[in-house]
Amino acid sequence: MGETSGFLERPDGSKLAWRGVEGQGPTVVWLGGFKSDMAGTKAQALADWALSAGRAYFRFDYFGHGESSGDFADGTITRWREDALAVMDELIRGEVVLVGSSMGGWIACLAAMAWPERVHAMVLIAPAPDFTEKLMRPEIPPEGLADLERDGVWLRPSEYGDPYPITRNLLEDGARWGILEAQPIPIDCPVRVLQGGDDPDVPWSHALELANGLKSQDVVFTLIKDGDHRLSRPQDIARLLAALEELA
To answer: What angle do CA 137, 216, 42 make, to 5 degrees?
Structure first.
């Protein structure tokens, strides 16, 4: 059997696009990054792995991302967290292994804190908890701060494509979901962290702060010295699959 697809309708009328593979074991759930989608290299590699290994796998696009409905500029951490919890609640049975990339690492942590009984383990790739306050806000230039104050939105340049909107609402909402100040962070499942040493977006020290702060003692932090933010090279994918096979 191949991968199936569909849409999950949300109470406000929006729709979340999803794809799934039926199989054994805890369901591996892909949680993508900020402004990314479920068609990326790593998400597809996990689908190929699940199909060949007979493993259960699920991926979806957040509100305002990829094939899902909604305007990206209207998205917040609150909204994207709710998307992940809705998918787990309505479309997936039993335990899950959350694979979170960048912002998806933050969403994975928030989901694990909300439903610890459902989360068997996590694999986090360049996790970016608290990024709105810790990584994004400090880098906003004076003209960007002026745009936010005047218009409520700043168009942030991106090396990955066209500029994208950063809203005052996103920043203010993100501040309410910070987890790095918690001591310890109340997550007690096995966690594997893969982090690039040459990541221009998430410093390795930021990901290490998360790993060190987790309550769980079953945490392994892997620094890939020449790795970038995406960690999508064949050798990076191999490390991701090895971590999954160890945990799941």
So the answer is: 60
